[in-house]
Structures are given as structure tokens and as C-alpha cells.
Amino acid sequence: MIMSGKKILVIIIMAVLISSVVAGAVSFFNRSSTSPNNGNNNALLNDKLNEVVNFCLRSLPNGTYIPWCDNQLLTVVNKICGQDDAKQVIDVCSDGKVAQYYNTRNIESSKSTTIYKNNNITTK
After folding, report:
1. Taking the domains of the chain in order of start, what are their residue ranges?
2. Which of 44, 68, 108, 113 has the fewest beta carbons under 10 Å from its own?
3. Separation between Cα atoms, residue 27 and residue 23, nearest integer Å
4. CB 19 within 8 A of CB 25
5. Mean pLDDT of 71-82
6. What is the pTM of this model?
7. Tally of CB atoms within 10 A around 42
């Protein structure tokens, strides 16, 4: 199977975005809540996670299939939003964009059955 240059570029960009979200999440949860830079870390993690979710949502009208979005987006968001501190500072924990993505793709995730939507936890 031959992949076009555009698809390879998309995969590379997703890998960079994912690694920055994971690095941000790790640093966010490994630091104490009294750290003076905690507000900056929260904002950075929030921005990066929003970028990834928006990237996945933008792929929908194009018909572009991005396996990471289908297979890992919900898992990563649930891990981050599962932390008590994160629910109040991370937009995707309450804005319903992840649920919107999966509803649009009509995907049932077998890895996790919880979607955070509007500050309420919906279990399927």
C-alpha cells in the first residue's frame, strides 16, 4: 500500500501533537498544585489538547481517516479528565467536542465507555 506525501505529513503532524499533549499531561500531573507555573502548565496542556481535538474534528468533513483519533482520542482525554484538578481547567472535559467527534464518526469505543460532556459523565 503506497501512501501519498500528504498522508505521511498528516501522520507526522499528529505524532508531534500527540507527543506534546502527552508531555504536557505528564508534567501537569507530576508537579504539585502549589507550583507557581501551574497556571501556565494548565494553559499549555489545555491549548495542546484543544489543538488535537480540533484537528480530529477538522478531519471529519474532509473524509480523512486518522486512526489515532478513532482509537486513542477518547482514551487520552478520559485519562486527563479523570483527574480531579483537570476537569475545571481543561476545556475538552466539558465542551462536548470529543463526544461530537465520536457521534459524528458513529464510533463506539471498546476501550472506554465514558464520555465527558458538559461537566457530566455519560456512560454508555
Report:
1. 5-123
2. 108
3. 6
4. no
5. 86
6. 0.58
7. 17
Residues in the chain: 124
pLDDT the model gives residue 122? 53
Among residues 77, 75, 30, the alpha carbon closest in space to that of 49 is found at: 77
Q: Is the pLDDT of residue 121 over 70?
A: no
Residue 116 pairs with which residues in a beta bridge?
Answer: 121
The residue type of 110 is: S
User: Which residues have C-beta within 8 Å of that of residue 80, sequence separation ≥ 6?
Assistant: 25, 45, 49, 86, 90, 93
Mind spelling out the 3-state secondary structure of 10-69? HHHHHHHHHHHHHHHHHHHHHCCCCCCCHHHHHHHHHHHHHHHHHHHHHHHHHCCCCHHH
Model confidence pLDDT, tens digit, residues 35-64: 555 567 778 888 989 999 998 888 887 777
